[in-house]
């Protein structure tokens, strides 16, 4: 199946994930996260990890998701190490290396936590790799999110590269003036201000210009035209209600589990 | 109130405005961008700091606690969606930082170096109190910073309660970061052109 995007006159190939709207994808991520918090069985957690990984692999695996996984792997490794050695519920030794005992309970606890983190990464990765900034903006506005909030969320994605570019220019200018790479922590802290001050002033200046431009173009006008979503999604309301309801139930159940410990 | 070059024109009634003006709407993404770039900059210099709340501080100082809270919230959402999904839950901490900075600034606690230090301690306390339960829920109490986690491991190894160990781990890291960020924000605010400060204040 294909769809013609009139705005840019090109034919885009439709995939199964294009029929799922952005909010459903986010609610699905929240639902999977809450499931992993409510059911602490390790096999169930492993099943959820596999499900969210499959979801990601059957759509598109982006470099951002791989970066997120590698970013968290070090933390997961230290968590397994610290909990395996020092977890308060440690009783049964798993193995010993040079008189240091690694315990089963801490190891399993760390594995459960790691599984939850991987589920969040994969589920959010699915959302990130299958939606675009403009698609999210149009959809959120079409379902009634205030346009100012939509602008806030989406403009960051466009402004960020601009700020990064400005920073590179300022750093290059500082180097051209003969400022050498700093070695000690004090030197490094001192080197922050000569770069950040011009960067921040320039960024705020551009914000003022953007604000004046938006005002001139009638951003605050009540008769704004709503953007039309690019895709037609499958059963959006039903999936929103269903996922929201199940997630609320899971949150309620988790809260009850916590409260019942004190009763 | 004017002291040492910093003027706080806001008052306790106007600082909680929920209506977002176009000026604030364009200031918030800039603040989020500053947070993002400052954090990357600190990581590039291998500093033992995050600096990831600098934009939130400045947004709160320029446009009030609501703008600061929204900047902090969106910053964590964007950071969570692009780099570390678990960061999304720490948006609660960022919202609190934005609110506390805005309130303290409005009450004149960013007018001189001594007051900035007291403010920074209060901000670090707020951040640690809110982050500790999140650290325990998601990371078993760790913060992910090696030397802070070494302290945490040492305390857990000595059978100290996980909540106290996690709070100490977080607070030790936060106090350093928040004090440095508070002084950088204080210094940068003093360097901003008056027309810029007035523009964001007048257009709230």
From TrEMBL, chain A:
Give the way it sits in the membrane: Multi-pass membrane protein
Mind telling me which residue stretches traverse the membrane in this protein? 68-87, 107-127, 139-160, 240-259
Alphabetical UniProt keywords: Cell membrane, Membrane, Transmembrane, Transmembrane helix
Localization annotation: Membrane
Q: What is its main location?
A: membrane
Highest taxon, organism lineage: Bacteria
Please state what the protein is called.
Energy-coupling factor transporter transmembrane protein EcfT
Taxonomy of origin reads: Bacteria, Bacillati, Bacillota, Bacilli, Lactobacillales
Automatic annotation (TrEMBL), chain B:
**Top-level lineage group:** Bacteria
Q: Is Membrane found in the keyword set?
A: yes
Q: Which UniProt keywords apply?
A: Membrane, Transmembrane, Transmembrane helix
Which residue ranges does UniProt annotate as crossing the membrane?
20-38, 50-74, 86-105, 117-139, 171-189
Q: What is this protein called?
A: ECF transporter S component
């Amino acid at each position: 199946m294909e769809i013609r995007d009139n705005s840019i006159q090109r034919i885009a190939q439709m995939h199964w994930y294009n029929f799922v709207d952005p909010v459903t994808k986010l609610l699905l991520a929240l639902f999977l996260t809450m499931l992993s918090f409510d059911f602490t069985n390790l096999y169930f957690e492993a099943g959820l990890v596999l499900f969210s990984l499959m979801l990601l692999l059957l759509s598109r695996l982006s470099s951002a998701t791989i970066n997120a996984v590698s970013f968290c792997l070090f933390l997961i490794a230290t968590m397994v190490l610290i909990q395996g050695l020092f977890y308060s519920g440690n009783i049964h030794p798993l193995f010993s290396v040079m008189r240091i005992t690694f315990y089963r309970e801490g190891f399993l606890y760390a594995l459960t936590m790691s599984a939850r983190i991987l589920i969040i990464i994969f589920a959010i990765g699915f959302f990130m790799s299958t939606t675009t900034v403009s698609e999210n903006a149009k959809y959120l506005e079409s379902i009634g999110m205030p346009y100012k909030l939509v602008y806030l969320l989406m403009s960051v994605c466009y402004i960020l590269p601009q700020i990064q570019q400005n920073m590179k220019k300022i750093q290059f200018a500082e180097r051209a003036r003969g400022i050498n790479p700093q070695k000690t922590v004090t030197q490094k802290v001192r080197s922050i201000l000569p770069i950040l001050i011009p960067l921040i002033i320039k960024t705020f200046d551009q914000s003022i210009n953007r604000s004046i431009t938006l005002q001139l173009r009638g951003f605050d006008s009540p008769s704004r035209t709503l953007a039309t979503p690019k895709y037609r999604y499958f059963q959006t309301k039903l999936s929103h209600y269903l996922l929201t309801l199940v997630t609320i139930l899971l949150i309620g159940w988790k809260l009850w589990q916590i409260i019942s410990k004190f009763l | 109130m004017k002291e040492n070059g910093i003027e706080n024109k806001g008052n306790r009634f106007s600082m909680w405005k929920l209506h977002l003006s176009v000026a604030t709407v364009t200031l918030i993404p800039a603040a989020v961008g500053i947070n993002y770039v400052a954090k990357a900059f600190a990581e590039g210099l291998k500093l033992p700091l995050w600096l990831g709340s600098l934009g939130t501080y400045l947004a709160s100082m320029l446009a009030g606690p609501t703008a600061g809270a929204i900047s902090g919230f969106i910053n964590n959402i964007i950071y969570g969606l692009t780099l570390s999904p678990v960061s999304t839950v720490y948006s609660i901490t960022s919202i609190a930082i934005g609110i506390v900075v805005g309130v303290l600034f409005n009450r004149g606690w960013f007018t001189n170096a001594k007051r900035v230090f007291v403010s920074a301690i209060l901000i670090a306390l707020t951040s640690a109190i809110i982050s500790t339960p999140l650290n325990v829920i998601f990371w078993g109490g760790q913060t992910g910073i090696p030397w802070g986690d070494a302290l945490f491991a040492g305390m857990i190894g000595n059978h100290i309660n996980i909540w106290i160990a996690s709070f100490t781990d977080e607070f030790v890291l936060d106090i350093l970061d928040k004090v440095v960020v508070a002084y950088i924000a204080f210094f940068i605010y003093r360097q901003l052109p008056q027309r810029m400060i007035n523009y964001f204040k007048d257009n709230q």
